[in-house]
Design a protein that fits this description.
By secondary structure, the chain is mainly alpha-helical. The chain has one domain: 434 Repressor (Amino-terminal Domain), CATH 1.10.260. It is built from four helices and two strands. The chain has a two-stranded antiparallel ribbon with strand order 1-2. A hairpin with a 2-residue loop joins strand 1 and strand 2. The termini are far apart.
Amino acid sequence: MGRKPKNQINQTQNKDQPIIEEENLVKKTCRELGITQKELAERIGVTESGLKTALARNNFSDQMKTSIELLIENNNLRKEAMKTKLFQENLRAFLTY
């Protein structure tokens, strides 16, 4: 079976998720959330070395991918909730003016 070539990009397809290029998944997630790889590892319940090994080998377990996807989804939902809260506050202020 052997190792996969480094330039090969693995992709995963979930019914509700777009295709994600694993090669960029960790870096993209860290950039989007403004966290380090160490913090990402802690949030998804793996060691920093385990995450770095998966990144170096471009070999992410399904559990790791799902955890990262859920972390991104949670972050996006928090942003939307904050927008909704701000809208409600602005609407309330407008209506009481």
